[in-house]
Write a structure and sequence with these properties.
Blueprint: E1 3-9, H1 13-22, E2 31-38, E3 45-52, H2 55-62, E4 71-77, E5 92-93, E6 99-107, H3 110-119, H4 131-147, H5 153-161, E7 166-174, E8 181-186, E9 191-194, E10 198-202, E11 214-217, E12 222-227, E13 230-235, E14 246-247, H6 263-269, H7 271-279, E15 283-284, E16 289-290, H8 299-303, E17 307-312, H9 314-331, E18 335-339, H10 340-343, E19 354-360, H11 366-377, E20 381-386, H12 392-396, E21 399-402, H13 415-434, H14 439-460, H15 463-473, E22 478-483, H16 488-502, E23 505-510, E24 528-532, H17 538-549, E25 555-560, E26 572-576, H18 584-602
Parallel strand pairs: 17-18, 17-19, 19-20, 20-21, 22-23, 22-24, 24-25, 25-26
Antiparallel strand pairs: 1-4, 1-10, 2-3, 2-4, 5-6, 6-7, 7-8, 8-12, 9-10, 9-11, 11-14, 12-13, 15-16
The chain binds 6-O-phosphono-alpha-D-glucopyranose.
6-O-phosphono-alpha-D-glucopyranose (G6P) binds near residues 411 and 616.
């Protein structure tokens, strides 16, 4: 979690840093801080400001100050070590206030390092793990000074990091070297933007894209040494690394709200286009299959796969649960779906013909990344479904499929979810056609996938109705979400969305399992959202609705267009168009996203940045 930005160049750093960090606020927003080196008249000074709460508080604080320098760093925090206070907000410094740094990640051995540094006379000002790095660098500067005539900041940084265990993306400045920015990465995301006589480093591309689309993705253990007109990348052994810049495929607009009041609503409405983008060029309808460039090189290996372990977190995990039903039904491959935080610690029984498939929008989720590493350690084929190009998971996995949906900024995942499910459908086609799936079935699925963007557009037309339903139920404090088969994961996802966005207790449950417990809670005060499309389990789910009605529980039904009977069973009905059963989750998820969104807004909450959450969870 946490977002960092660093700037060095001919312009004033502060406005660029502030603007950049705002686009990273989804990564954490409990405090923020900035440090700019002002080098007027040959006397360099570090101008530092910190504020608790969102970046706007920091912005208000620095309004009255003139931050002039062209070198600076900024941070938005999601607290791990130490509460959300100004003292714990980054940037952190050494004892002398020369070295300033911002950090995303966790220094695992910080306690022992801190004790050693305290014994050596260092004084700490915060409870963070990060601060040890500043003091460690200070210590190395001291030692270098005693040995050599001149030293460089990057040498001290390299030596200091040899003592550090953990994950970090760091941007470091030193007022004694006011024309230099050092940035280094290990396991936490970091990107270098190369402009004209200026450089930016940032946790992700959204902070960079306004200034340049020429970027370098760092590998673990790589460090950039930047001056206003030059950059150098080395490893921690000080050997030059040949990092070739790449062109970003994001646009500035894709990281802005584009007239919508919230990113979440914009991203909900972007879903037809997002699904279109992730399908583009991949469907081969007449052959009833999918062409997936990222899997070409391992096509033969995939033919041999006998079992798939899906591993992911949060909403991506629930996309994986839908994938399980699809892959088992149409590709005939046994699938197990694990929470990544479980897979990495339990002892999964892997076979040589198994593959681990991880799903991650950000490509940086710590537990998901760890499950990739665990599988690789055991020699298992690793595959990824990832949105962020160049992310850690994209690079760690052997092969994979990109979602190509542009940045998702709202903390609660929406368009990433539906496109993950669409990609899983593509994978099902691909693997299914390698196995027993007939041409006719493949063609039918491919054609239906082609129609999906249009069908999602139709669901979005119900927004006004969904808003009215949100008004009606907004004061309830408990909800039950029920579904079966393909729509059981959607019941979980609907409940998760409501919890995340409106802080209302909502429980997702198998409709058939309801009578084994939750039915005890049903009365007129507990609304149930039941996903009941006209599919193979329709009648079973209708029986479950009857059980709720018999106990006077209000029912909101998500049903298939043309189903008039359901009106007499449910208090409120939201229709979705008819589609293949395996694709209904992509349609039924959409009204639940809109419902959660509107309840959250009606309750006056910040739906883009729900309390306590962060979008990219780079800690365990
Ligand atoms: C966080 C986000 C969720 C997301 C999950 C996994 O919890 O708030 O929206 O589903 O992380 O993120 P990933 O980037 O791995 O898909």
């Amino acid at each position: 979690m946490c977002g960092i930005v660093g700037y060095i160049g001919k312009q004033k750093a502060a406005p660029i840093l502030l603007d950049g960090i705002k686009s990273l606020e989804y990564r954490g927003y409990d405090s923020a801080g900035i440090s700019v080196i002002n080098n007027q008249g040959g006397v360099a000074e570090a101008q530092v400001e910190k504020a608790v709460g969102k970046v706007i508080n920091l912005e208000n604080k620095i309004k009255s100050r003139e931050l002039l320098g062209g070198l600076g760093i900024i941070h938005t925090r999601w607290a791990t070590h130490g509460g959300a206070t100004e003292a714990n907000a980054h940037p952190h410094s050494d004892c002398a206030g020369n070295i300033w740094l911002v950090h995303n990640g966790i220094i695992e051995n910080y306690k022992e390092l801190k004790n050693e540094l305290i014994s050596a006379g260092h004084q700490f000002k915060s409870e963070t793990d990060t601060e040890v790095v500043a003091h460690l660098i200070e210590e190395q500067v001291k030692s270098l000074k005693s040995k050599v005539q001149s030293y460089a900041l990057e040498d001290a940084v390299r030596l200091a990091l040899k003592k550090v265990r953990g994950a970090y993306a760091l941007a470091i400045i030193d007022k004694r070297e006011p024309e230099k920015l050092v940035a280094v990465r290990n396991s936490s995301p970091l990107i270098l933007g190369i402009g004209n006589d200026e450089y930016l480093v940032a946790s992700d591309a959204s902070a960079v894209v306004k200034h340049t689309r020429k970027v370098i993705y760092f590998n673990d253990g790589e460090m950039a040494i930047l001056t206003p007109d030059n950059h150098r990348v080395v490893n921690l052994e000080n050997q030059a690394v040949d990092s070739q810049p790449q062109e970003l495929d994001w646009t500035v607009e894709s990281a802005q709200k584009g007239g919508y009041p919230h990113f979440m609503l914009k991203e909900i409405f972007e879903q037809p286009e997002a699904v279109e983008n992730c399908l583009r060029g991949r469907l081969v309808v007449q052959e009833g299959t999918a062409k997936l460039g990222g899997l070409e090189s391992i096509k033969d290996k995939l033919r041999e796969i006998k079992r798939i372990h899906i591993s992911a977190c949060g909403t991506a995990y629930l996309a994986g649960k839908v994938g399980e039903y699809m892959l088992e039904e149409y590709a005939g491959i046994p699938v197990e779906v694990d929470l990544a935080s479980e897979l990495r610690y339990r002892k999964p029984v892997f076979d040589n013909h198994d593959a681990v498939l991880v799903i991650s929008q950000s490509g940086e989720t710590a537990d998901t990344l760890a499950s990739v590493k665990e599988a690789k350690e055991k020699g298992i084929l690793t595959l990824g479904i990832v949105n962020t190009v160049g992310s850690s998971i994209a690079r760690e996995t052997e092969a994979g499929i990109y979602q190509h949906i542009g940045p998702e900024i709202g903390v609660a995942s929406t368009k990433a979810f539906t496109s993950q499910v669409a990609v899983l459908a593509l994978l099902t086609l691909f693997l299914g056609r390698q196995r027993q799936m007939s041409l006719v079935t493949g063609e039918r699925i491919a054609r239906e996938l082609q129609r999906l963007p249009e069908l999602i557009r139709k669901v979005l037309q119900s927004e006004d109705l969904i808003k009215q339903i949100a008004v009606k139920y907004q004061t309830h404090n408990n909800f039950l979400y029920l579904g079966r088969k393909y729509n059981l994961p959607i019941a979980y996802e609907g409940a998760l969305k409501l919890k995340e966005i409106s802080y209302i207790h909502a429980e997702g449950y198998g409709a058939g399992e309801m009578k084994h417990g939750p039915i005890a809670m049903i009365d007129q005060n507990l609304p149930s959202v039941v996903i009941v499309p006209s599919d193979s389990v329709y009648e079973k789910t209708v029986s479950n609705i009857e059980e709720i009605r018999a106990r006077r529980g209000p029912v909101i039904a998500i049903a298939t267009e043309g189903n008039e009977d359901i009106k007499s069973l449910a208090d409120d009905v939201i229709y979705i168009p008819k589609s293949l059963e395996m694709l209904t989750p992509i349609l039924s998820a959409v009204p639940l996203q809109l419902f959660a969104y509107h309840v959250g807004v009606l309750r006056g909450l910040d739906v883009d940045k729900p309390r306590n959450l962060a979008k990219s969870v780079t800690v365990e």
